[in-house]
Design a protein that fits this description.
Elements lengths: L8 E4 L9 H16 L3 E6 L9 H14 L5 E5 L4 H13 L3 E4 L3 H11 L11 H7 L11 E4 L5 E6 L3 E6 L7 E3 L7 H11 L4 E5 L6 H10 L6 E5 L2 E2 L15 H7 L3 H9 L14 H5 L12 E2 L2 H14 L2 H12 L6 H11 L6 H12 L9 H7 L5 H13 L6 H15 L4 H12 L7 H23 L1
Parallel strand pairs: 1-2, 2-3, 9-10, 11-12
Antiparallel strand pairs: 4-5, 5-8, 6-7
Helix pairs in contact: 6-7, 9-11, 12-13, 12-14, 13-14, 16-17, 16-19, 17-19, 18-19
Bound molecules: glutamic acid.
Length: 472
């Protein structure tokens, strides 16, 4: 009997039939955290034996999404398509030992059996025709197309799932399933078990939708005389409509969230909490902190609900706490043509990073700072509210002159100069501050305007004031 005595080892095993779904991303994260918690490792395995549906570009996309998200595996990616001979060899071994058999039934024969079973009230089962022949030691037709089927023997299949508890199946419910298809490709059941054995996987954490496959896998582990790994079937993720998360309810891939302006740190944190909690009311937790306390056995059984509002809130919390240097690389794609080297815009990021819940929002706030001084677009609202009064041109000229006279152009000095001017003219400071905000950013609300002026610097502040004066 082969036993798993080595260190804890988990695997994330996506099929490259599409992008990285957020459910898959959560599975990857839970695998990673359990491995880290127990001083183990994680393997990335690309399950691409379904040639009809697998695509190399999907595999590459999944790998790059995982990297973006910060899921760091230790081994792989291993492609199952590189191991086809191994699966065939193992299936042949089972045939040699009488634990599997070659089935030569044609599609027509199987269709006829299926049609005959309809209306009998029983679900279709393979007739066992070829199994009976194999058991009788009948000669097998050389070279004829065939599949290899596993011989399911009667008996109980019990296992303890870390999340679901004790699970019971009866082999009666299981048909003689196919291991090698007629095109000689292995089925998922065969390749997954051969790999989990060869790669010494100790824990299998995967979506709930695989629960009904697990008894088949356990039978295969037994047939290979190996102890099965520990299983943990993760609960479903539901959309806000309480139905299985799907395109209907919004974005479903890690990439879509990236493109909406979610930072990977926030998505990672958010996904960790879909079915797991660090305890108390705690919601913000880093991967390292989680890895110190996470255990698959603490994952909840009940489905988790994907709440977009909460993700946006969490993203805002991350943006607020992250340094400009950390935000910058994620922000670049959202700045488009306005992008500038980090050193030139660090202060612009800092002053705006808590003014939006997504990178998209923050970038939109930043654009007026980065625009050319004479190409600033004024918002209609802002103009209506603040660009008025017969004395406005005079007010702005006075303000320009005053600011031009400020030596060290910092927050304090500019504020003091403006307030002195207002007092000298017997006007409220707002009469200068509001139009100044329109001149500098084209908007009606912004961070404290003297901070904005300090960030733009004297030259650009004056140029922007000139541009406003020229338009009056
Ligand atoms: N390749 C399977 C999937 O993408 C996962 C298999 C497994 O984790 O056992 O659904």
């Amino acid at each position: 009997m082969c036993r798993l005595t080595g260190p804890v080892k988990l695997r994330f095993a996506p099929s490259p039939t599409g992008y990285l779904h957020v459910g898959g991303a959560r599975t990857a994260i839970f695998n990673l955290l359990h491995a880290r918690r127990h001083g183990g490792t994680m393997l990335l395995r690309i399950e691409d034996t379904d040639v009809e549906r697998s695509r190399q570009h999907h595999a590459e996309q999944i790998v790059s999404s995982l990297k973006w998200l910060g899921v760091e595996w230790d081994e792989g990616p291993i492609y199952q398509s590189d191991r086809l001979d191994r699966y065939r060899e193992r299936a042949n071994k089972l045939v040699e030992h009488g634990l599997a058999y070659r089935c030569y039934c044609t599609v027509e024969e199987l269709d006829a059996d299926r049609a005959a079973s309809e209306g009998t009230g029983k679900s279709y089962r393979y007739s066992g025709r070829c199994r009976a022949k194999a058991d009788a030691g009948a000669a097998q037709p050389e070279g004829e197309p065939h599949v290899i089927r596993f011989k399911v023997e009667e008996g109980a299949i019990d296992f303890h799932d870390l999340i679901r508890g004790d699970v019971h199946f009866d082999a009666k419910e299981i048909d003689d399933f196919v291991l090698i298809r007629s095109d000689r490709y292995p089925t998922y059941h065969l390749s997954v078990v051969v790999d989990d054995i060869d790669m010494e996987i100790t824990h299998v954490a995967r979506g709930d939708d695989h629960l009904s496959n697990t008894p088949k896998h356990i039978l295969l582990f037994r047939a290979f005389n190996c102890e099965p790994p520990v299983f943990a079937h993760l609960p479903l993720i539901l959309g806000a409509d309480k139905k299985r998360l799907s395109k209907r309810s919004g974005a479903t891939s890690a990439e879509e969230y990236r493109d909406l302006g979610i930072v990977p740190e926030a998505l990672f944190n958010f996904l960790m909490l879909l079915g797991w909690s660090p305890g108390g009311d705690r919601e913000l937790i880093t991967p390292d902190e989680a890895a110190a306390i996470f255990d698959l056995s603490d994952v909840h059984k009940a489905p988790a609900v994907f709440d977009d509002e909460k993700l946006l809130w969490m993203n805002g919390q991350y943006l607020m706490r992250m340094a400009a240097d950390q935000i910058y690389p994620h922000l670049v794609p959202f700045l488009g043509d306005h992008v500038k080297p980090l050193d030139e815009i660090r202060a612009v990021i800092d002053i705006n990073k808590s003014r939006g819940r997504t990178l998209k929002d923050v970038a939109a706030q930043m654009i007026p700072y980065l625009a050319d001084d004479d190409a600033l677009v004024y918002e209609e609202e802002a103009v209506k509210k603040h660009i008025k009064g017969d004395d406005l041109p005079q007010r702005m000229k006075d303000l320009r002159e005053t600011l031009a006279g400020v030596g060290s152009f910092d927050v304090l000095a500019t504020e003091q100069a403006l307030r002195q001017l207002a007092e000298a003219k017997g006007l409220g400071a707002g009469k200068y501050i509001h139009p100044l905000r329109v001149a500098l950013l084209g908007v009606a609300s912004s961070p404290p305007i003297f901070d904005v002026a300090a960030i733009l610097g004297k030259e650009r502040t004056l140029r922007r004031l000139d541009a406003l004066i020229a338009r009056l």
